[in-house]
Every structure is written in structure tokens, then in C-alpha cells.
Design a protein that fits this description.
alpha/beta, binds nicotinamide-adenine-dinucleotide, Rossmann fold, three-stranded mixed β-sheet, Epimerase_deHydtase, about 325 residues, binds galactose-uridine-5'-diphosphate
Length: about 325
């Protein structure tokens, strides 16, 4: 297939691009490099350095794209509470421009990076796709808004859409021919920050809040290896069906508290990770754990690296590359 990957210079998008190229697809990456890196775009893909607002420059009538995989966006839940306007602008206004361009170009399929953050504080865990959506942060609200836009598009124009709701992505693609991992600057995610502390690049880790209603008082998350997540995108592309908006949660179904993650980082690296407890970060849900039964059943998705220690080990290998 001929595929447009938005955000293909970012963490998840670059790993998915690698797998798409391996599978023999033709890939064009659209990325304005605001948080991504040109050298993260795997060899074999064509990079167009442009924003979502200019998607019509690539998605021209007659361009012949078979699908768009839409990763581009702003991703930091904490930042979204203090700079909400940029989240609405990029994640909603930008994504709508992409959708308009895709419609005008006659693209039949779209696979979208949605998020666990759409569920807010779920009433029960693990969270199925049928759980009510009630985001606690602006990031989740903006991602959910575009999920709704996709549903409308499917009903009105017959698009084949799949929203993949990732839980917490970590790890790296570690292969002899490809080493791709997380390179956010500044980094905001727990595992890469804890690894930077283990590597001696930061003095300590701030743990945001220890007074949540969880077993040890710190937030609980469900971590998924980026390579397993990437594999689900190829399955979603095949499963996309005209006039259907499918939604799948992607996680391993195991919750780890922030302090348990820190312990795992200490165990994997063999280095100390000093911790300081600081106040809660605005907008953080207490606990998010996925039910991915539907993805396993309908997509045939089976995670190959579900163990937290393996994910941390691969992220550690990437950091020390
Ligand atoms: N990383 C996670 O844990 C996680 C969890 C759930 C969902 N997601 C979703 O997955 C997607 C990818 O996340 P990631 O971790 O790879 O993020 P990332 O920041 O590494 O990658 C995002 C990419 O999008 C590009 N981009 C941003 N705004 C753009 C715009 N307006 N026009 C063109 N390019 C633009 C950036 O330059 C970057 O290369 C996002 O949509 C995010 O919401 C991520
Ligand atoms: O220095 C840090 C960084 C994070 N945390 C805590 O670690 C947990 C996980 O935080 P992350 O920032 O790593 O991840 P989030 O759960 O906030 O969000 C991530 O996963 C979501 C889905 O669950 C999203 O989609 C989002 O894009 C992605 O950033 C939270 O309790 C956070 O407060 C710390 O204590 N200290």
C-alpha cells in the first residue's frame, strides 16, 4: 500500500514506519519536526517536512494514498493543563485539516493514535472500550475530540477508521539493523526519566504525588512495548473496514505503580534511582489499566514482549547505544 504516516519522525511513528517498510509498503512521512527528528525517519521512507495544516500539499487528488496513519500531535498530559491552547490547535484543528485533505484526496482508510487518557478515572479496571470517556486532562480531551470527528466521518462519508487507544508506551526497537527509541526533549515520561537518573544524567526522580487511592499511593499505569504497539498498527490497517470506526485498547492488562516502576528500573540497570516525592501533577488519573481482549480477538494481536523488565531493558539498551 501507499501510506502517509503523520508524526513519523517521532517515537511511535518512526517504529511503525520501520515495520511498514519491512512489510513492503511505500511510506511518506509528514512531520514538521517540532518534537521529532529527521534522522529518526527510517531509511526508505520519504520525509515531507510540513505541518498537519499543510497536509493537502501531500494529499493531493490523484496522489493515490491507500491509508493515513495519524501519529502527529502533542502528547504531554501535564503540559496540556498549563498550555491547553496548543493542544486544541495541534491535536484538533491540525487533525481536522488532515481529515479534510484525506477526504478530498479520496483516502479510504485512517488509523489514529488515540489514548487511554480519554477514559479519565475509569470506574473499573481493566478498562474495556465500552467504558465511559471522561478525560481528566486537556490532552485526553483533545484526543477524544478527534475520535468523535472520525466517527462522524465514518458515518457521513464511509471512511474505514481504526482508533488505537494506547496505554503507556515504552521500550525501544532493538534489532541489529534498527535501533529506534524515545527521544523527547524535554522528556516527560516516567521510564526514560528514571533511566536518565540511573545513568547519572539527572540527580533524582520526582515522583508526582503519593496520596492517590492506590496500593502505595502513587499512580498506576499499564506499560506496552513500542514494538508490540507498532505491530498492532499493521493488523489494524488490514482490519479497517469501510463505514466502520473500530476502537481498540492496547495494553498488557498489568498495572504498575510509579514506585514499582522505579524498583524495576533499579533492578534492570543495577544502578540507584534516588526519588523525591513532590505534589501531584495536574490532570493525572490515579490508575489506568487496559483490557485488550478485543484487540486480541478481532485483530489477532499478541504482545511478544509483555514483561515490564524487558521493556525497561530495551529502553536502557537504547539509552546506552
Ligand atoms: N507515547 C505514549 O505513551 C503515547 C500514549 C498514548 C497515545 N500516544 C499518541 O501516539 C502519538 C505519537 O506519540 P509519540 O510518543 O510518538 O510522540 P512524539 O512526540 O515522539 O511524536 C509526535 C510527532 O508528531 C510531530 N508533530 C507534532 N505536531 C505536528 C504537526 N502539527 N504537524 C506535523 N507534525 C507534527 C512531531 O514533530 C513528532 O515527530 C501521539 O498522537 C500520541 O497522542 C502516545
Ligand atoms: O518525572 C516524572 C514523570 C512522570 N511521573 C508520573 O508517572 C506516571 C506516568 O506519567 P507519564 O508522563 O510517563 O505518562 P502519562 O500516563 O501521563 O501519559 C502517557 O500515557 C497516556 C496514556 O495513558 C498518554 O496517552 C500520553 O501520551 C502519555 O504521555 C504519572 O503518574 C506521572 O505523574 C512522575 O512521577 N515523575
Amino acid at each position: 500500500m501507499k501510506l502517509l504516516v503523520t508524526g513519523g519522525a517521532g517515537y511511535v511513528g518512526s517504529v511503525v514506519t520501520r515495520l511498514l517498510l519491512d512489510a513492503g509498503h511505500e511510506v511518506v512521512v509528514l512531520d514538521d519536526l517540532r518534537t521529532g527528528h529527521a534522522d529518526a525517519v527510517p531509511r526508505g521512507a520519504t520525509l515531507v517536512t510540513a505541518g498537519l495544516a499543510d497536509a493537502a500539499r501531500v494529499l493531493t487528488p490523484g496522489s493515490g494514498f491507500d491509508a493515513v496513519l495519524h501519529f502527529a500531535g502533542l502528547i504531554a498530559a501535564g503540559e496540556s493543563m498549563v498550555r491547553p491552547e496548543i493542544y486544541w490547535d495541534v491535536n484538533v484543528v491540525g487533525s481536522l485539516a488532515l481529515l479534510h485533505a484525506a477526504r478530498a484526496a479520496g483516502v479510504p482508510r485512517m488509523v489514529y493514535s488515540s489514548t487511554a487518557a480519554v477514559y479519565g478515572n475509569p470506574a473499573r479496571i481493566p478498562v474495556p472500550e465500552t467504558a465511559p470517556t471522561a478525560p481528566t486532562n486537556t490532552y485526553g480531551a483533545t484526543k477524544l475530540a478527534f475520535d468523535h470527528a472520525l466517527t462522524s466521518e465514518v458515518h457521513a462519508y464511509g471512511l474505514a477508521a481504526v482508533s488505537l487507544r494506547y496505554f503507556n508506551v515504552c521500550g525501544a526497537l532493538v534489532r541489529d539493523d534498527a535501533m529506534i527509541g524515545e527521544r523527547h526533549d524535554p522528556e516527560t515520561h516516567l521510564i526514560p526519566i528514571a533511566l536518565e537518573v540511573a545513568a547519572g544524567r539527572r540527580p533524582h526522580l520526582e515522583v508526582f504525588g503519593d496520596d492517590y487511592d492506590t496500593p502505595d499511593g502513587t499512580c498506576v499505569r499499564d506499560y506496552i512495548h513500542v514494538a508490540d504497539l507498532a505491530a498492532a498498527h499493521l493488523l489494524a490497517l488490514d482490519a479497517a473496514t469501510p463505514k466502520e470506526h473500530r476502537v481498540y485498547n492496547l495494553g498488557n492488562g498489568n498495572g504498575f505503580s510509579n514506585l514499582q516502576v522505579v524498583d524495576a528500573v533499579r533492578a534492570v540497570t543495577g544502578h540507584p534511582v534516588p526519588v523525591r516525592v513532590s505534589p501531584r501533577r495536574g490532570g493525572d488519573p490515579a490508575a489506568l489499566v487496559a483490557s485488550s481482549v478485543l484487540a486480541r480477538r478481532e485483530l489477532g494481536w499478541t504482545p511478544a514482549r509483555p514483561a515490564l523488565h524487558d521493556m525497561i531493558g530495551d529502553a536502557w539498551a537504547y539509552l546506552r547505544r
